[in-house]
Automatic annotation (TrEMBL):
Binding locations of Cu cation: C28, C29
Main location: cytoplasm
Source organism: Aphis craccivora (Cowpea aphid)
Any GO BP: mitochondrial respiratory chain complex IV assembly
The keyword Acetylation appears for this protein: yes
Subunit organization: Interacts with COA1. Interacts with the chaperone CHCHD4; this is important for correct folding and the formation of disulfide bonds that stabilize the structure.
Region annotation Disordered: where it falls in the sequence: 1-24
Protein name: Cytochrome c oxidase copper chaperone
Length: 68
């Protein structure tokens, strides 16, 4: 009887790692555009006056795969 799965069809785990690369991006390096604008607004106007920019940055972070 022939095996159902040949040794050639099994891929080593190292070949699956490129799919995980985006998660290696650090939170501090993600979304620099929205982060810079958010931070400047908070410094000048206070957090309570920059809620829309804070939410825009959070949305960008979520799109990058972060659970915020």
């Amino acid at each position: 009887m022939m095996p159902l799965i040949s040794d050639k069809s099994i891929t080593p785990s190292s070949e699956n790692k490129p799919a995980e690369e985006p998660k290696k991006l650090k939170a501090c390096c993600a979304c620099p555009e929205t982060k810079r604008i958010r931070d400047a607004c908070i410094m000048e106007n206070g957090e309570e006056n920059c809620r829309h920019l804070i939410e825009a940055h959070k949305e960008c972070m979520r799109k990058m795969g972060f659970n915020i």
